[in-house]
Design goal:
heterodimer, A: 116 residues, mainly beta, seven-stranded mixed sheet, four-stranded antiparallel sheet, 48% strand, B: mainly beta, six-stranded mixed sheet, globular
Chain lengths: 116, 117
């Protein structure tokens, strides 16, 4: 069983450029999450999907951020007009959510973004 | 107010010894879940152990056990027989039920564990 994969693993970009990250969840996991982790901190929730529906977005997700999961499988996270403050590790997680059950999120290796 | 507090920025433990990593949490929910994750230098968050708020027994997974004290709102991770490969950041996280729709995890700031010979 393959785990959550993310691409690219590292991204260096110049301020003002757009970047897009991809996450492939564990197959048949219906929930997919995006988190952001800055140096010395724990991950912070950005948004999540149940199948293709985006159910919640954090206030951290400014208008420059957009996430999609068009077919309920892989997801993309796009950051437009990047700023130096966007430099962070972007983590994706997936889970096999069922009502009333224990929901464990399994994380990918992350995409490390550096904005120059 | 922080929902998850990890007061130990760094810990050292000798190989083969046991170590306890502290975690306290704050919630008004009756139903919630507590998780511990390990993050090696490679960056991936590895799930270690889960404790549900209604679970009466402390969770155990191999060398990992969770010392759950509900009244004190603490969920400490105990690692027995430490190995060099246990050196990593460890994060405590909580999931609050909130009507069954909010499943996001709230993480603490982590504890860096260093296992020495």
């Amino acid at each position: 069983d393959t785990g959550v994969s993310q691409d690219p693993r590292h991204k260096i970009t110049k301020r003002g450029q757009n970047v897009t990250f991809r996450c492939d969840p564990i197959s048949e996991h219906n929930r997919l999450y995006w988190y952001r982790q800055t140096l010395g901190q724990g991950p912070e929730f950005l948004t999540y999907f149940q199948n293709e529906a985006q159910l919640e977005k954090s206030r951290l997700l400014s208008d420059r951020f957009s996430a999609e999961r068009p077919k309920g499988s892989f997801s993309t996270l796009e950051i437009q007009r990047t700023e130096q403050g966007d430099s962070a590790m972007y983590l994706c997680a997936s889970s096999p959510w069922t009502s009333g059950g224990q929901e464990t999120q399994y994380f990918g290796p992350g995409t490390r973004l550096l904005v120059l | 107010a922080q929902k998850i507090t990890q007061t130990q920025p760094g810990m050292f433990v000798q190989e083969k010894e046991a170590v306890t990593l502290d975690c306290t949490y704050d919630t008004s929910d009756q139903s919630y879940g507590l998780f511990w994750y390990k993050q090696p230098s490679s960056g991936e968050m590895i799930f270690l152990i889960y404790q549900g708020s209604y679970d009466e027994q402390n969770a155990t997974e191999g060398r990992y056990s969770l010392n759950f004290q509900k009244a004190r709102k603490s969920a400490n991770l105990v690692i027995s027989a430490s190995q060099l490969g246990d050196s990593a950041m460890y994060f405590c996280a909580m999931r609050e039920a909130k009507g069954g729709t909010a499943s996001k995890l709230t993480f603490g700031t982590g504890t860096r564990l260093q296992v020495t010979l």
